[in-house]
Amino acid sequence: MLVVDESQPSFSDVEYAQRRRVPKREEFLNRMDAVVPWGDWVKLIEPHYYRNKRGRRAVPLETMLRMYLLQVWFHLSDEGVEDQVNDSFAMRQFMGLDFGTQQVPDATTLLHFRHLLEQHQLGEAMFASLNARLEAEGLVMRGGSIVDATIIAAPSSTKNTTGTRDPAMRQTKKGNQWYFGMKAHVGVDAGTGLVHSVTVTGANVHDLDEITGLVRADDQVVYADAGYQGVANRPEILGDEHLSQVQWRVAARKITLKAMHPHEQQLESRKASVRAKVEHVFLIVKRDFGLAKTRYRGLAKNLHQLQVAMASANLLMIVRAQTIQARLTAAVATG
User: Fold this and answer.
1) Does pLDDT of 251 surpass 70?
2) Which residue of 111, 170, 308, 310 is most buried, as measured by CB atoms within 10 A?
């Protein structure tokens, strides 16, 4: 009988190793593979994962987790992930599949795995577990946060099986344009730009209504844009012993900014440079991960996806910071 040595590289592995340049997708996946806390996340999911004593053997948990993360990072449908892994060497390599002995888990298997994560709210657990690890490693600063919100559009078409729009989504006007969807509210560490809190609401909910869930217990300073004007005078802030003592550094409205003294304008510019860190998070989630539009119906499913995406954004920011530091160190070393 022919015995296959799984450690032996396949013909495709040897062929791809001869390339002159590593594609950006493969480089991204290699870097994320190195920083994702696989042990922590697998341990969180394992108590809820299938233990079939009869029937077909379950797909290894880490394989399904890797497939699900590909879905989040590239904003793909269940069928789309299956097709992409079959087509992409980088994705197959990331999942650790050898087509000579293994097949890509089908879309239905991924669907059931995603439902399992959503049912047990494991996206929230993964997000919290990662942040606890980052804090333990000294990668998170304390004392200050940035709060902000962004609109994530939802399909407004009624051409679906129910003939209706998502009842959990709402309509709102920003500037002179109307939007239909949900709003993602986040709290970001002012020192590092890493996300520590995330909630979702309908798009019509005011940013101020979610402020209490985005501030940490030891925050002394909170930065916010002009949409949070009047936050210090809200009843839930005045009635809270901690929040009433927080310094609320809220941006001035544009209409009053022009009339300010140059020194005051300079202070506003400094506040804006701090607030820019939260825009970086939105850039990663909406542009790099493609989460500019909801894929699922209901706030709960979309919150779960957003929690995993925010955890992944934290990891990506750490990867990029390490890359920049390595380049600076190399530049100094070469003189």
Assistant:
1) yes
2) 310
Distant-in-sequence, close-in-space partners of 318: CB < 8 Å, separation ≥ 6? 35, 134, 139, 194
Cα gap 41→319, rounded to integer Å:
18
Contact 6, 98 (CB under 8 A): yes
> For residue 174, what are the β-bridge partners?
177
143-149-150 Cα angle (round to 5): 145
Cα 217 to Cα 66, 221, 230: the distances in Å are 34, 11, 21
3-state secondary structure of 102: coil
Spell out the residues 6+ positions from residue 331 whose beta carbon is closer than 8 angstroms to its own.
none
Q: How confident is the model at residue 3 (pLDDT cuts 50, 70, 90)?
A: very low
Region of 172 please: left (phi>0), alpha (psi -120 to 50) or beta: beta
What integer pLDDT is reported at residue 55 of this predicted model?
59
In this structure, the dihedral spanned by the alpha carbons of residues 38, 41, 42 and 47, taken in order and rounded to 10 degrees, is 170
Domains of the chain: 11-119 (no CATH), 142-326 (3.30.420.10)
**Cβ-contact 179, 155 below 8 angstroms:** no
Give start and end residues of each alpha helix (H) in the chain. Answer: 11-16, 24-35, 38-45, 61-74, 78-87, 89-95, 107-119, 122-136, 235-238, 254-257, 262-283, 299-333
Q: Which residue from 116, 113, 115, 291 is spatially nearest to 186, judged by alpha carbons?
A: 291
pTM listed for this prediction? 0.90
Which of left, alpha, beta for 120 (phi over 0: left; psi -120 to 50: alpha)? alpha
The token duo for 56 is 């077909």
CA–CA separation, 215 and 188 (whole Å): 9
Q: Which residues contact 181 (CB under 8 A, 6 or more apart)?
A: 151, 152, 153, 154, 169, 170, 203, 293, 294
Report which of 316, 329, 327, 326 is spatially closest to residue 27, judged by C-alpha positions: 316
pLDDT in tens, 84-108: 999 999 999 999 998 777 889 999 9
Predicted confidence band of residue 222 (pLDDT cuts 50, 70, 90):
very high
